[in-house]
Amino acid sequence: MRPTSRCVALIALIVAANAQSVEELKGESVESASTSTGSSQEEEPKEAWMRAPSGGVAVRSGEDALLTCVVLGAKGKPVLWRRASDRQLLTAGGVRVTRDDRVRVLHDDSEEPLQGPGIAKGGDVWALVIKSVKASDAGLYMCELNTEPPVRSFHRLTVISRGLTPPENTNVTDSYSANLPTLSPLALAHNYTDCCIAANVSKACLGFCSIQTILEGTGQDPETCQPDFPSIVKCMADGRNHVPCCVQERVPDICQDVCRGEFTPVTDNIKTHYSCAAYMEKTLACIVEGIELLPSPPEDVEVETLNEKQLNVSWNPPIENTDTVTEYIVNVTALRSFDAHLIDPSESSMKNTSVKMSQPVTHRLPANKTFLVLNDLLPFTMYEITVTSYNVHGSSLPSYAIRSLTLTPGKMKTTKVSPAPKLPDVRACCVNAGVNHFGCVDKLCDPTKTFEIGVTDLMICAPWAGTTFGCLVNGMDHSPCCRARGLPESCLPLCSGNVTNLDFNHFKCLRYMSSYTNCLLRGYGVLPGPPTRLHLTNIDTDYAVVHWSQPAALPDTVQYYNLHYKAVAVGDDYRVLEKIHSPFILEDLESNSDYEIYVEAVNEHGVGDASPRLIFRTQSQALEQEEEQATYYNVTACCERVAVAGVCMPLCSYDAKMSDLRALAPLCAQEFHKLLRCGAGGRNHEACCARRGVPANCRGVCAGAYTGGINTCVPYIGNIVQCFEEGTGLLPGPPREVHAIVSTTGDKATGFLDWSAPEDGANATSYVVHWQRVGNNSQPYYYNTLQLDNQINTTDSMANIENLEVNATYHVFVVAVNEHGTSLPSSMLLINITSNTQEQSVSGIPSPPHSLSVSSHSATWLTLTWQPPQFSHPDEKISYTLYYKSPTQLGQGNVTMVNTTVPGHTLEKLTPNTQYVCWVKAHAAAGESLPSETLLAWTDPAYPAYVEPPTVNPVNLVVEGSSMTILCIAMGTPTPTISLYISGHLIRQVETRHMVTVIHNVTRDMDQISCYADNGYGTPMQASRKINISHVPTIQASGITMAAAGDSVILECRVEALPKPTIAFWRDPNGRTPVIDGPNYTIQLLSDPEEQTKYTMRLIIKKIADTDEGDYFCHAENAFGKTLRPVSVRLRPSTPHHNVTECCIQMNVSSACVDACSFHLDMDNIMDRPECMNDFDKLMKCAADGSDHRSCCASWGVPRNCLELCRGGTVARSCALQHARRALACFRDSGARLPGPPRSLKAHTAPTPHSVLLSWEPPAKNPQTVYLYRVFWRAYGAKVPEKLDTSETSVVLTGLQDDVRYECVVKAANEAGTSSLSQSIMFTTAGQETGAAAAPVAAGGAATAVGVAVACLLVAAILAAAALYYRHRKNLRLKAQGGVAFENPSYLREPAPIPDTTITNGSVPNGNANAGNGVVNGNGVSMSTAWRQETLQNPTTATQREVDPTLYEELKLGQDGAGFKRLKP
Question: Quick one: which of 159, 179, 165 has its CA closest to 29?
């Protein structure tokens, strides 16, 4: 491709100059001489001469330089070395003359012959050595033989700066960009900054306007200066013509724009993307050389029209290298000759001589002549004239082109203008009228200066206003003119001279003073009238010729004319062309547009009246283009005929966009062969491509031949497309409808060929018929050449091929030829001559597809590609049939055919490790081609899928909330399907060997990553990896812990973090008061054995005191953050609520263990004495103090089968040993606040039938805190009990059956939790059974009813308030601790019951409840579900035998999961 931008080439600019490539630098610094062609080594030359050096010498700064001079026939004459720039003599013979001791001469007087071309003996070589060269040593050196005339040779030394020298191991192929040689002082002095400034180059880019600055570094990004590069390159070339040098250096014509001082910006047009990188070094070297040697263009070129046949051309000598100029060449080109008789029939009787562009005529003039009169020109014709300077080295660029129009026949250019009438003496009028102020007389009394009048002038001169303006009008009324020019009414007195006084209303007239002045001059009669007879001729698409005649008034005073024009549709202001004459060519117009024009005459006093307006319309360029393109090749129509995909049609244009090519390349890869065929248009553009620098391996593309390696030719896409576009107008199209008739006579045959001439583009002038006999071992045609063994040239569209052999096959094709090149064949003829054929007709068909190959393969598929037919018409729609079969499958019917429209196909569902035979045929409207070559292709063997463990990045540093990249690599043939699973969830599934997946917003549960691969062969494989996801610590705190003074207290926080956190306990949230591990405090961090990221941080206060009460803060921190959570400890009141010792005595605890009972149970005392384990159940029951602590224990992880321990029940020994301490901690924390069990539960006979009255006493422990009781009853032996809630200590159960026994228990509740169950009783409707004295209750009257109602209302209000309070409190805890609260777990699991409705009587299977202090629903059962969950953990599934427990046992087990079932082995 063209360098990334062509500005990259500009960066290097001239620095590569005349240096040799790096390969020359790596050899010895000795310049070899070329072989002499004039004499042999044995012969002595007749006269002295020197062999010209083969090239310059380039060395690095600080190294030694050696310049060699080969002198033949010196015959003892001394050889001199000089510096060419200042002619300083350095050496004479073998003696150093200069004072610089770094210079010396190497010369050997030996007569022995040397091995070397052109060197006869050692004495022929004179070498100049310069030690430790410097930058100032660079330049030309002259080797001179002191003869008459002197014999000289020139040698260039280039010194490469050390700073620009690449490392020694630099790749030599990068010599252009890595080795930037230092230039000669003359080249370094080339500073064209002034030119850049004049060309409006931006200030930031002026660094590119000096060679020295470029070498030292501009400090500016070349991309930002690209808009200025056309001006910079023009200034750099400095008007010199460097093209001959570039041609000599074999720079392609497409890359010679810089040689002309032109820069083609890289745009989105595909034609601007061509590659000149290989020639840029030579180009810049030519520019450097031309700056020193070539002249600049002539200056101040002017053309003057003399008459209808003569133009006078004049110029000044060039500024640069003026003394070297040897001649000037004036180029004269006639652009257009118009119909003169259309101007004025009376002027000429010339006929139509309209021509377009003629060949330029050159005139050579010696250097001392700077003008030329062109004679014998055509009248009324536009000519373009340039002047060029020449010297012995070359030429300048042509001067700027000047276009001039000769006069019409019979007219001579007016050489003298008559003077205009004089103006009236207004100044004298003012003075005579008494105006004595000099400023007023100077401005208000001079009609040529009235437009300069300002506000100050009017104010100063107001006393003389009537006089001055009266003198200006000169006795005339100019109001009509002023009114026509748009002056307001208040200003018209100035035009008539009737001004009595001036006020501020006249200030607005100042803006109209120009029109006022013009009206005065017009009234004086000193301005010319309007031009007459304004008309146009030769109206074209972008120009028109404007004619007018002189004005009727004062025509001889007219100096020139002004032309005003504007586009009518746009509505712009008039554009003015000044100082012109009739006729005038109005150029740069838009096609098919309306324009309005008028002309004004100008004399020495000003501008006269305008001519009438004239409106005209330019011709339509679209019609012209259609007419022109009708005979040209239409590439878009070709693409449509070959069915190029619609999305690819933007590429089917010679003006396609490079951005479209980049965007559509992946989509249109299969369409490229069609685009190339249509782009080439059946023409052979290889010669153009070679001329424009396209390498040989890409020239097949220039002939429309698609190759798989076309990507390597993309850098030359602009070169190729330009050749395509140019060739369609020059080269002939392909012959069409080629066919032949073969006639056999004896053992010989004759072929009669016929074809149709090309339809589009340039016509063919002749044709060439190529034919050749095809042997069994030869290809039917050559893929890389368009030439066969035999040719026949003909100018007709037919030819005969005679003396063809019978029983032979011939290959024939035809190409069209003209002076610019040849076409491509449109089809081929394959003539098979047999002895039995008397006459046969053969039609042209496409050549076979070729280069069939396997582009990719696997175990179950093969991808085949091939090249389209080389011989086919560009707009011929071609399809293909792919044939394939396995050799193991016998029979013709086993061949599989696949039809496709693209030159490639993938065969799928093949058998692994199997050979297939493949070939292709092409199909076109003319017929079916021969088969392509046959291809044998193997599928790969099948291998089961194998997957590697997933690779995760970043390694071991995946942070929660960040992203991670997962790579799954799988082997196997065919390609396996890889599935990615994260923590068991399918994330992605792709058929590939390498799957990269980026996971965003990683969470800590994404720690298990698995790659799964399956290809249908063998067993699928999975590989997994567990990763650690780092995250900020999170803390769950235990809330408030209650303790008594002197107790040992454990404060715990559960921490989850990765990596392992550092912990601390603080007394304040800011960390100013840490808790120090010491005698009374122990800080522990315990790891969870099952989950590595979870820890328990524990603070043990061994004997808590008043100073230890309060808030503590758990602090955890790791590399990713820190977290703080509060935990509190509170001391119980000093007066104990329960004396464990008294309970132990009542429970008959052995005397040896009674000392373990105090206000709280001493667990350490029990564990130290095994004899106390027999009384363990009694001790725990006393410690529970009649309260239910199961919720507290469950929140701390006590399993369900051990929860009975937490309310003083009997459990297994293993539960006692493992969880007794936790149960005692719960006893201490909440035991003082929980209620005890209700006492003295009794059943009484109710006054109503089928009823019973239950009563009990408040608990002994915390009776004042109890706000609710729950009553459970059921028929003896029934499965499900009934329950009701009440705030009183009695309740009436109704709806009972008289002959059924019932059992009943009660428990109490307060805000801290619940009690254990009371002792159960048995009762009937007759009252309590044995041992339960039933006290009769009399039926109440009105007082009883009132009491019941009041009690119901009171209970409802209390419960509603309790519900709101606890619901609000629960929400606060959940918000404060992330949804988990440890302060009072019993509330979360057994909240206080809330009655939903007012309680009424009702019947239930097991009886109803109805009393003034009872609370039940319509069915006699409370709707509250808080009491249903007696335990918190699901029971372990068991398969033991089930028996019916007692009600007390069932209620102790609870209703969660197991219900009222007791499991026994």
Answer: 159
pTM score of the predicted model: 0.50
Residue 1294 phi/psi, 5-degree rounding, is -115, 170
Could you tell me the pLDDT band of residue 1035, with boundaries at 50, 70 and 90? very high
Question: What's the CA gap between 1157 and 1173, in Å, rounded?
Answer: 14
Measure Cα distances from 737 to 701, 797, 879 in Å: 25, 11, 19
Parallel/antiparallel/unpaired status of strands 594-602 and 311-316? unpaired
Chain-centroid distance of CA 87 in Å reads: 60
Contact 927, 955 (CB under 8 A): no
- Taking the C-alpha atoms of residue 1398 and residue 701, their distance in angstroms, rounded to an integer, is 98
Give the end-to-end CA distance of the chain in Å, rounded to a whole number: 90
1106 closest CA partner among 1078, 1132, 1073, 1131: 1131
Are β-strands 1121-1131 and 1040-1043 bridged in parallel, bridged antiparallel, or unpaired?
parallel
Residue range 1248-1257, pLDDT digits in tens? 888 999 999 9
Which residue did the predictor score with more confidence, 486 or 1186?
A: 486
**Alpha carbons 159 and 182: distance in angstroms, whole number:** 6
Strand partners, 535: 547
Judged against a pLDDT cut of 50, whether residue 138 lies above it is answered with yes
Q: What is the pLDDT of residue 349?
A: 33
The answer for residues whose C-beta is within 8 angstroms of residue 554's C-beta and 6 or more apart is: 420, 421, 526, 527, 528, 529, 603, 608
Give the closest residue to 965 by CA, choosing from 981, 947, 952.
952
Percent of the chain with pLDDT over 70: 77
Comparing CA positions, the residue from 618, 551, 546 lying closest to residue 583 is 546
Distance in angstroms (rounded) separating the CA atoms of residues 448 and 454: 15
Retrieve residue 1163's tokens.
Answer: 């667990």
Do 532 and 552 contact (CB within 8 A), yes or no? yes
Comparing 538 with 496, the larger pLDDT belongs to 496
* Weakest mean pLDDT among 829-843, 1245-1259, 1315-1329: 829-843
- CA atoms of 1091 and 1007, how far apart (whole Å): 12
Phi, psi (rounded to 5 degrees) for 1195:
-65, -20
Dihedral angle computed from the Cα positions of residues 339, 344, 348 and 349, in that order, rounded to the nearest 10 degrees: 70
Quote the tokens at residue 1397.
């409705």
Q: Give the angle subtended at the CA of 424 by the CAs of 419 and 430, to the nearest 5°.
A: 150
**Six token digits for residue 214:** 């470029």
Q: Give the closest residue to 1063 by CA, choosing from 1047, 1044, 1079, 1077.
A: 1077
